[in-house]
Amino acid sequence: MIVIKSEEDLACMRRSGQIAAEVRDTVAARLSPGVTTGELDDYAAELIKERDATSAFLGYKGYPRTLCTSVDSEVVHGIPGKRRVELGSIVSIDVGILFEGFVGDTATTVMVGTSDERVVKLLDATQSALAAGIEQAVSGNRLGDISNAIEKVARRAGFSIVKEFVGHGIGRTMHEDPQVPNYGPAGKGPRLKAGMTLALEPMINLGAPEVEIMDDGWTVRTRDRMPSAHFEHTVAIHNGQAEILTQWTKEG
Ligand code: MF3
Ligand code: CO
Ligand code: CO
Fold it and tell me: What residues contact residue 194 under an 8 Å CB cut-off, 6+ apart?
């Protein structure tokens, strides 16, 4: 069942989205060689607390930390810890916060210093795929139009799409109906309408699409150990249009 949000609900979701975006970009700005993912997580916990919000991840199905930090071949759900970020790495920072009863969920992938040209293209294509998906999140379209737009951008750039993990409805809980695959035919699936709120999150691989879960039970990484990128926005369909609730800030 897809939960339709009222104007009051959307006002709350704007605030939780804004907080999630601020934390995402403030933490991302901290990325530099030598910092550990655990330090980034502690920083995020502080920022979230300062804003009277709570992490939507901490304790979710037993998840142990505030953020997900996924480095290089890690796709999503990397657990922050002692790992040091290196020059040339790419790091996905995924932030989920709960504020006034609503969740905001957003991610960016940041390059630490410079990396090779293919990796630069991978980040660019994943962000463009997200933008193309968001453009389709308008009243009257179907869910498949979002999925298909994301898939097209990723494939045209020559990259592969992770199929095992998907975007999702979002609201009072982090994961609501519907699931939003990052691939599939246009013109299919539920019709989109005002008050729907979706977290769109392409996960795009430089090499092959296959992924595996590491022994920690959470971290998803590519089987071929090639890099993977992940960008995510929480989006509302409002006045027929796509409204991004987790807009990039100046730092972002
Ligand atoms: N933020 C992830 C998503 O985009 C979910 C993370 S769940 C956690 O859907 F438990 F790993 F944090
Ligand atoms: Co997320
Ligand atoms: Co999400």
Answer: 4, 139, 237, 238, 239, 240
For residue 156, with 0-12 CB atoms within 10 Å meaning exposed, 13-18 middle and 19 or more buried, which class applies?
Answer: exposed
The alpha carbon of residue 30 and the mean position of all alpha carbons in its chain are separated, in whole angstroms, by: 18
Asked if the peptide bond before residue 209 counts as cis, ω within 30 degrees of 0, the response is: no
pLDDT at position 250:
66
Nearest CA to ligand 1 atom 8: 57
Pairing of strands 203-205, 160-161: antiparallel
Q: What is the pLDDT of residue 20?
A: 98
pLDDT in tens, 53-70: 999 999 999 999 999 999
The residues facing 170 across adjacent strands are none
- What pLDDT, in 10s, does the model give residues 201-224? 999 999 999 999 999 999 999 999
Which residues have beta carbons under 5 A from ligand 3 (an ion)?
105, 199
Please say whether the beta carbons of 210 and 165 come within 8 A: no
List, in order of start, the domains of the chain with CATH numbers. Answer: 7-244 (3.90.230.10)
Task: Pick the closest to residue 182 from 228, 227, 240, 140 (CA basis).
Answer: 228
- pLDDT confidence tier of residue 251, bands split at 50, 70 and 90: low
CA of 173 to the centre of ligand 3 (A): 11
CB contact burial 70-105 (16+ within 10 A = b; e otherwise) = bbbbbbbbbbbeebebeeebbbbbbbbbbbeebbbb
Question: Residue 114 — pLDDT band, cuts 50, 70, 90?
Answer: confident
Closest CA to ligand 1's atom 7: 57
